[in-house]
Write a sequence for this structure.
């Protein structure tokens, strides 16, 4: 029987314990598992390799993204690091210029150690100009962080596959509820599971979904080898969080649409960057010097890093999430000191608008 994704997620993990009929999936905390006898296994030997709770989560996430194999890790960055273990030393990559500062920092570290080399593009034309048989993969975010630029995944996939390069898409901002990169031609999709997927600012996790079984099996082998394992308790919390993902995301998105519409008419705001979908908004104040006082006046929005939780957050990328990108680089593509990023929560939208209104009135 085929069911809607909302139903699938609400039921995730249910009926997995046939022995007791437990509705909530059990947490298997054991790190090791007994062998029935020499040469036999229950399918579980050591929890880094395989864990029943983690298996439920990974299977559910693969279904959610319509992929062949899911792997969960201890953080979004560990998921990115695991993906780059796929490639031989000295590989070259093309990367969307506007991206999370932590990803940029990691790429710069790999390049400084001559492990990998990175070239950046802003547009599809720039991508086409730089694509060549030496490129092992294209890595992109869409919408980008924090400028909210949408990139045509299908078009990028076509360009990448002309030279047999893989396409890796960070789908953290839109989640599989609004975008399924694997269906659009991507080979790998990743998430900071810390964000919308778990959605409560209390779980650190990463997610990788592979389109093809062979690629998923290789990542599974590498995950067992290098050990970026997500604990079974965090896997259980992740499963519990996914059950409410559609409800949370729909409320966040509706709130974001209302707030974006409100912000566009505020005289103190120069630009509102919102792609019309999802729960993330960026804005530019007319005067960058007003950022400090604006942040100080907010009472419902919390000035903090991260995003995707039920609580609304506001971030200043220049000194927080993107501080590791050199000033001249970030400002060259529009990440200027007047820019703020809003992660919209599930609060009452009018309360959020009132908070923004009173903060803007003081600057």
């Amino acid at each position: 029987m085929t069911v809607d994704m909302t139903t699938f997620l609400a039921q995730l993990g249910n009926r997995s314990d046939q022995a007791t009929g437990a509705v909530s999936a059990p947490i298997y905390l054991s790190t090791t598992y007994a062998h029935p006898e020499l040469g036999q296994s229950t399918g579980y030997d050591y929890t880094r390799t395989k864990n029943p709770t983690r298996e439920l989560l990974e299977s559910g996430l693969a279904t959610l993204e319509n992929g062949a194999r899911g792997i969960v890790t201890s953080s979004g960055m560990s998921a990115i690091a695991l993906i780059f273990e796929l490639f031989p030393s000295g590989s070259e990559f093309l990367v969307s210029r506007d991206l999370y500062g932590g990803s940029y920092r990691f790429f710069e570290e790999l390049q400084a150690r001559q492990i990998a080399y990175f070239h950046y593009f802003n547009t599809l034309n720039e991508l086409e100009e730089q694509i060549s048989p030496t490129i092992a993969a294209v890595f992109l975010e869409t919408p980008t962080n924090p400028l909210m630029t949408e990139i045509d995944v299908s078009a990028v996939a076509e360009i990448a596959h002309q030279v047999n390069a893989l396409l890796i898409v960070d789908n953290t901002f839109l989640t599989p509820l609004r975008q399924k990169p694997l269906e659009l031609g991507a080979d790998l999709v990743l998430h900071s599971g810390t964000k919308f997927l778990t959605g409560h600012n209390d779980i650190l996790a990463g997610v990788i979904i592979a389109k093809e079984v062979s690629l998923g099996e290789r990542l599974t082998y590498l995950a067992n080898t290098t050990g970026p394992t997500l604990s079974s308790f965090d896997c259980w919390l992740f499963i519990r969080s996914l059950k409410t993902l559609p409800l949370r995301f729909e409320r966040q998105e509706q709130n974001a649409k209302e707030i974006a519409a409100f912000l566009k008419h505020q005289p103190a705001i120069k630009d509102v960057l919102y792609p019309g979908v999802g729960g993330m908004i960026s804005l530019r104040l007319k005067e960058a010097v007003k950022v400090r006082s604006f942040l100080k006046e907010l009472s419902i929005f919390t000035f903090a890093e991260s995003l995707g939780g039920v609580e609304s957050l506001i971030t200043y990328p220049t000194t927080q999430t993107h501080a590791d990108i050199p000033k001249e680089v970030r400002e060259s593509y529009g990440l200027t000191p007047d820019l703020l990023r809003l992660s919209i929560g599930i609060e009452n939208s009018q309360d959020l608008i009132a908070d923004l209104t009173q903060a803007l009135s003081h600057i």
